[in-house]
Amino acid sequence: MKRTMDYSPCFIGEVIFVILALLSSIALATDPGPLQDFCVALDDPIPGVFVNGEFCKDPMKVNADDFFLSGLNKPGNITNQFGAAFALVTVPQIPGLNTLGISMVRMDYAPYGLNPPHTNPRGSEILLVLEGTLLVGFVTSNPDNRLFTKILHEGDVFVFPIGLIHFQFNVGKAKVVAISALSSQGPGYLAISNTVFGSTPPINDEVLTKAFQIDSKLVDYLQSRFSPDNN
């Protein structure tokens, strides 16, 4: 004999309230939607509307150049330890991006150049390879920690979900050029190695030895490699 459950209107109302609250919290995890056509960022600290950490330029003084950037066709300097260069297109480069919830980046990779495992905590990313061959991948959150990986060629596109650890690696003998678009005007960038072993002040050795199951000498070595003085 099946047992039926009787729920009071008060209980049902509380359940609906909790669901709506959860949905609201999810919605607020992304950039807030603008309530005006645009808020062109202004460097001068003058009285005015302050949105997303920026003062808004007088709308009557806004012009097309506030939404424009040139030079993204120029390759970046890839003579560094990772063999990669990133040309950001965010609010400092295009003031009109403020409040629009988007940004982009041009990425150049030398042969075997790497964008090390990192996260963009505030934005999802969609990447398009314009030239070369690029190995990409991301890892899902606990408890699965599944790796999704793909080798991309010219014209291929790959998506990295918000907040997940991901990477890009040039596996070819020629340079790679790619463009990424992100769903935030400030997606953030947290390189795992720099964040864990290059923090200021350093994370306690005992924490890292236990977390990574390595000895303190290796922790000290890694901290010396990723200290801010070496970057």
TrEMBL record:
A Pfam family that the UniProt record links to this protein: Cupin_1
Xref: Gene3D superfamilies: Jelly Rolls
Top-level division of the source organism's lineage: Eukaryota
Gene Ontology molecular function: manganese ion binding
Residue ranges of domain Cupin type-1 in the record: 70-220
InterPro entries assigned: Cupin_1, Germin, RmlC-like_jellyroll, RmlC_Cupin_sf
This protein's GO CC annotations: apoplast
Keywords for this protein: Apoplast, Disulfide bond, Manganese, Metal-binding, Secreted, Signal
Places the protein is found: Secreted, Extracellular space, Apoplast
Cysteine disulfide partners in this protein: 39-56
Binding site for Mn(2+): 118, 125, 166
Binding site for oxalate: 115, 125
SMART domains membership: Cupin_1
Signal sequence interval, chain numbering: 1-29
Main location, first listed in the record: secreted
Keyword Iron among UniProt keywords: no
PANTHER family recorded: GERMIN-LIKE PROTEIN SUBFAMILY 3 MEMBER 3 (PTHR31238)
Family named by the database record: Belongs to the germin family.
Protein name: Germin-like protein
The species this protein was found in: Macleaya cordata
Taxonomic path: Eukaryota, Viridiplantae, Streptophyta, Embryophyta, Tracheophyta
